[in-house]
Amino acid sequence: MGIRNQQRRAAKKKAREHRQRIRQEATAGGTGYPPFGAFAAPTEADRIDDLLRAAAHAMAEDRAEVFDDAVAALVAADDRLVDQVVDAAFTLLLAALWRHGWMPADLLRVVRREHGKRPVGLVAGQLAAQLRGYAAATVAERWHRQLRELEIDVWGTDPVDHRLTAWAGRSNLDRTAALTAAAQALALLSGLPSLEPVAPPPGTVRPGAAGPDRGARPARPDVSSVDERQLGRIRALLAKAESTEFPEEAEALSAKAQELMTRHSIDHALLAAARSGDTAPTPIAVRVGLDAPYEQAKAFLLQQVAEANRCRSVWSGRLGFATVVGFAADCESVELLHTSLLVQATAAMLRNGSQRGRGGQSTTRSFRQSFLEAYAVRIGQRLSTVADDAGRAAATRTGTDLVPVLAARDEQVRQTTEQLFPELGARMISGNNQAGWVAGTAAADQASLGTRAPVTR
Fold first, then answer.
1. Which of 34, 158, 277, 382 has the greatest number of CB atoms lying within 10 Å of its CB?
2. What does 73-87 look like in DSSP terms, one character per residue?
3. Where are the alpha helices (DSSP H) in 191-275?
4. Does residue 203 contact residue 138 with C-beta atoms inside 8 Å?
């Protein structure tokens, strides 16, 4: 308690100095916040809200002294009231972000990317509390699935206390560190741009409506038609292929996985062609996180995998993810195959160890960047060959001319992509390390795609 009292006294002193500085600025005609005496006396909650906004704005504008003063004043305030104001700020911001296309995984990814792990737990607890305000039946299945993957229990019977004081206690943070993390998160979230909608926001799904994502824009996705049992088998096969030490076993496992993927996609295309009107599936969009380092090369690999599976991929480099547009079954295949190939590429890249130039300087980063880019180029060539062979085999097996069927789906994917991203740019890959490029190409030739025999040059 002695330490806590000392912190409070020091915080109150800083708060008094902060208020005095603000009055002096206002008197001199400055641009600071006006003195409280200029208006009707605000409530304590209003004062705390002003301080929280000031801290967030100062963080966004990199004004360290103003930020420190505002946080000190918040530390000196009543903890219970500060917690309530922080909750209200997060609730309003999150509701707005859901309406502007953001989803939980996107938010937690960008928070971790900008501020590390510390604020992630705080934001996760706040978004869980905010989503608890919606009936579970009015939230799309895509949201439920993402929350399960993030291990966030929103509608459980015993929710974890999400308030700032409780989170700080679980995280072993003092009051200053906790309020700093809250202000950092609020400053970041308040400056995020709108995103292209990939699922309906919470509270907009009609309970009992057909399709788990009914109401999403664009149009009606076919998420419900994805065979989870089949995808579970594919995931298991790819996981074994990545973990085995025997190339022959990896090749056989990946071959079986690729066979199931191909049949899965073709079967869905034929089923869709037999449906029309409101029952016909339409393309969806999913976001795939791309972590540092070498995000550009990883995004390029994802693009190659997406194009080979009749999807489009759009990279949002500043936000750390790419958006894959395609039919649900194909998007699932892209995510699974990209993950598996990235595991294989990373293992092969690391086996090359650190690199040095002729003068002894480190060239490891340029080597690895070029390695992954060359890997992606070669994988794209191999996947295109495999996809063409699989399409011809499927046409023979089904006795159906698949060209018009698949062309129609390609056109739907193109139109949906242009609807979501009306202004797209292109980015050139660098590939300026010859040794890395050669090694990446060789590794791609050895990668297990699911073909029964390797594709040679």
1. 382
2. HHHHS-HHHHHHHHH
3. 228-243, 247-273
4. yes
- Residue pLDDT, tens place only, 7-50: 666 766 766 666 565 455 444 444 445 554 555 567 899 999 99
Name the DSSP letter for residue 287.
Answer: E
> Mind listing the pLDDT tens digit for each residue in 391-403?
788 788 878 888 8
- Taking CA atoms, 107 is separated from 104, 292, 446, 447, in Å, by 5, 16, 37, 33
Which residue type does 273 have? A
The amino acid occupying position 201 is P
Query: Residue written as tokens 């206002």?
Result: 26
Q: Which of 191, 201, 152, 246 is nearest to 57 (CA)?
A: 191
In the chain, % of residues over pLDDT 90: 44
- A 10 A CB-CB count for 398 gives 12
Q: Residues near 146 by Cβ (< 8 Å), separated by ≥ 6? A: 103, 104, 105
Question: Residue 445 in contact with residue 451, Cβ under 8 Å?
Answer: no
- Alpha-carbon distance of 216 to 201, in angstroms, equals 8
